[in-house]
Amino acid sequence: MNYNTQMEAARKGIITTQIEFVAKHEGRDVNDLLSLVAQGRIAVPANKNHINLKPGGIGQGLKTKINVNLGISKDCKCFETEMEKAKKAVELGADAIMDLSSYGKTRDFRKELIGISPVMIGTVPVYDAVGFYDKDLASISAEEFLEVVLTHAEDGVDFMTIHAGINKATAERFKKNGRLTNIVSRGGSLLFAWMELTGNENPFYEHFDKVLEICNQYDVTISLGDACRPGSINDSTDLSQIEELIVLGELTKEAWKKDVQVMIEGPGHMAINEIEANMIIQKRLCHGAPFYVLGPIVTDIAPGYDHITSAIGGAIAAASGADFLCYVTPAEHLRLPDYEDMKDGIIAARIAAHAADIAKGIKGARDWDNAMSEARRKLDWNKMFALAIDQEKPKRYRDSSKPEIEDSCTMCGKMCAVRNMNNILNGKTVNII
After folding, report:
1. 50 φ, ψ (degrees, to nearest 5)
2. Does residue 229 belong to any structural domain of this protein?
């Protein structure tokens, strides 16, 4: 049987090589996975033109995935630096990379990135439109925005953020009610400005059927962008966010009618006590589609440490139903991240994702922790380093402060509880002095 998308194949009972790969990687029954893909509860982003992709699954019952953002901009346009970061991101365990390039030879960068990347690649076509056409925002036509979507699909992009939920009605609701930090989504602000400048409807909403045709043809997963995501904890769970979410739920059903896979993007800044309710509301309003969150960042006072504020929120969000975490780095709100920023962001997001997988009871999640605990009990330092989520940093710390007694550390020395318990239980003498 013929099929265009992973969803169409699943609905026809076809086990594709991508779905089979994900089932094996996740330790899931392939027929269960097939059913969830058919229902839209799991997405397997896999553009037909991304030849070297090792596909990943995002959604119900699967390991929480993390995404890394990078790309060239007008102020930081070093092609080679961002490409090297992409390679390192894969080595550090990123499940996906979003190319947010907005200046220069964006297509060259995108095509090379897709060519080298075994992980899913995402983009935001509206970012690329201004540079692609090299003209003012208001001069870009609806047809030209759609042409950028087609170009990205042809190049092999696996998922695209499409800000189709901010239409003229939701924009009016935002203007009527206001916000402390307005619209902080870059794509959302560009489309809001375009609608205000031209008086026209959001082209991605008005011509959503054409977007779906493109996505169906190339098997691109739509990540429905949250243009009205809160940019401060003051603005979370407000009318603008919820009204847009309702629209995204309606668009999700339209996409599924065309066998197009969907993810829903979620809040950016949010107080801890609101996170669980938001995850439940999103899953309900968007019919169980996979949920992709930025953070959430749980307090607004920690520039330079937002990898921590987002990891706190991300762990709670994923434990409460989110499926995909977009990493946040220490450079958030401040600059384009460098390599060390990226590494800190990836490690923080992976910790959050794994902590959530333990809470969700994901198969095998606790095995890693149990192996680490056994290595600690045995004081097997090399095994601890090998099991660490960041293998380099703990070894560097230990090497920087050598203990007198090899099977201890400089914190406790001979008072090491683990060492002394091992000795006592093995019938040996404990000599503290």
Report:
1. -90, 85
2. yes
Does residue 404 fall inside a structural domain? no
For the whole model, what pTM was predicted?
0.95
Residue 137 belongs to domain spanning: 63-360
Of the candidates 270, 228, 271, 268, which has an alpha carbon nearest to the alpha carbon of residue 246? 228
- 85 lies in a domain? yes
Closest CA to 253 of 288, 279, 227: 288
Cis peptide bond N-terminal to 290, omega within 30: no
What are the b/e assignments for 32-43, b being 16+ CB within 10 Å? ebbebbbbbbbb
Q: Is 97 helix (H, G, I), strand (E, B) or coil?
A: strand
Tell me if 372 is assigned to some domain.
no
**CA pair distance 56, 53, nearest whole angstrom:** 9
Tell me, what's the pLDDT at 398?
94
Determine the distance from the C-alpha atom of residue 198 to the mean position of all C-alpha atoms in its chain, rounded to a whole number. Answer: 32
pLDDT bin (cut points 50, 70, 90) of residue 433 is confident
| Total domains, the chain | 1
Question: Rounded CA gap, 311 and 328, in Å?
Answer: 8
Place of tokens 């799991």: 42
Query: Shortest CA distance to 217 belongs to which of 34, 374, 48?
Result: 48
Q: Return the residue matching tokens 């008005």.
A: 206
SS (H, E, C) 412-429: CHHHCHHHHHHHHHCCCC
Distance of alpha carbon 326 from alpha carbon 268, whole angstroms: 10
User: How many Å apart are CA 303 and CA 109, to the nearest integer?
Assistant: 29
**Helix residue ranges, H only, 159-271:** 168-177, 186-198, 203-206, 208-218, 239-257
Q: Mean of the pLDDT values across residues 294-298?
A: 96
Angle in degrees, CA 107, 111, 113, rounded to 5: 115
pLDDT value, residue 421: 93
- The values of phi and psi at residue 288, to 5°, are 80, 10
Task: Say which CATH number the domain at 239 has.
Answer: 3.20.20.540
- Locate 294 and state its tokens: 């930025």
Categorize the per-residue pLDDT at 104 as very low, low, confident or very high, splitting at 50, 70 and 90.
Answer: confident
Q: Which amino acid would we find at residue 311?
A: A
